[in-house]
Each structure stands twice: as structure tokens, then as C-alpha cells.
Design a protein that fits this description.
mainly alpha; 3 helices; Formate dehydrogenase; TAT_signal
């Protein structure tokens, strides 16, 4: 049996090279991300009531799921 020269790229070596290439692409794209922006809501807006129990959707949810109203 003749053994072939090691010049061919093996399956595992190919996957290693592919993984290393993907790691480079991720690290180069990271600086392109946008910076964080501060929250624009005031403290009063953050604490305001957002849940409205008297809406039709909420009443239907309570009725369908047999919650006491």
C-alpha cells in the first residue's frame, strides 16, 4: 500500500482552519458595534402605571383562564 503525501488538508485541519477564520471575523466586527445610549425616560415615566386591568384584552384573558375578576 502506498501512503499519500501529507500535502492534502485533512478534514479536522480544515475545520480547525475554518473555526480560526470565523474567530478572526468576529473579532474584527466587534469594533463596528454601536455604543450604549443612556435611558431617556425620567424617573416619573419609569414609575408610571403601564398595566391596565380594565382593557378588553385583559378581561378576556381573565375570563378564558378562569381567574376571579
Amino acid at each position: 500500500m502506498k501512503s499519500e503525501p501529507k500535502s492534502k488538508l485533512g478534514r479536522r485541519d480544515f475545520l480547525r482552519a475554518l473555526g480560526a477564520g470565523a474567530g478572526v471575523a468576529v473579532t474584527t466586527a466587534a469594533p463596528l458595534a454601536t455604543s450604549a445610549v443612556a435611558d431617556s425616560e425620567t424617573n416619573d415615566e419609569k414609575r408610571k402605571a403601564r398595566y391596565k386591568a380594565d382593557s378588553a384584552e385583559v378581561q378576556t384573558y381573565y375570563r378564558v383562564n378562569r381567574y376571579p375578576s
